[in-house]
Amino acid sequence: MNTNCIFCKIANGEIPSSTLYEDDAFRVILDVSPATKGHALILPKQHIANIFEMDDSTAEKVFVLASRIAKAMKTALNCDGLNIVQNNGEVAGQTVFHFHLHIIPRYNEDGQHISWIPGTSEAEERESIATQIKALLN
Ligand code: AMP
Ligand code: ZN
Q1: Which of 31, 58, 104, 126 is deepest in the core (most CB within 10 A)?
Q2: Is 114 a pocket residue for ligand 1 (Cβ < 6 Å)?
Q3: What is the pLDDT along the chain (138 residues), one digit of tens a residue?
């Protein structure tokens, strides 16, 4: 636990939060400034700054939990869709440097825009990028 980290304090129960799920490894809370009704954050209890620091076992558990929460939200909130967002690094919009997965229920005409500007690419460039990444996997 990092004593200067607000999400460490929330995840470990030192600062109260609206908690909708807790187990040994995670706490899931409602975001204080929600994009939509029900916007939740999955927080690991361990201080992990971002996805680059995350071990495989935690990463697997995060998405299993996200899937369970998404289904519970669909039933409880009757949302029409749902975005899963996870920012790593300031350039990517991360403002709290303790890993968190945003689960954002979406409602028809909720006025939110969670999107990017589509770019362009050439087949040759895509092939080169895929080759560089592929070399580090498996
Ligand atoms: P990000 O920009 O991905 O780092 O997201 C940080 C999120 O944490 C934002 O959606 C904030 O509204 C949320 N947040 C910040 N402080 C708190 C807090 N004390 N309790 C709940 N959510 C928080
Ligand atoms: Zn932390």
Answers
A1: 104
A2: no
A3: 888 999 999 999 999 999 999 999 999 999 999 999 999 999 999 999 999 999 999 999 999 999 999 999 999 999 999 999 999 999 999 999 999 999 999 999 999 999 999 999 999 999 999 999 999 998
Residue 131 falls in which region: left (phi positive, over 0), alpha (psi -120 to 50) or beta: alpha
- The verdict on the CB of residue 58 being under 6 Å from ligand 1 is no
Long-range interactions of 116-122: CB distance < 8 A, separation 24+: none
**Whose alpha carbon is nearest atom 22 of ligand 1?**
31
Measured distance CA(77)–CA(85) in Å, rounded: 19
Q: Is the pTM of this model over 0.90?
A: yes
Of the candidates 68, 88, 72, the residue with the CA atom closest to the CA atom of residue 38: 72
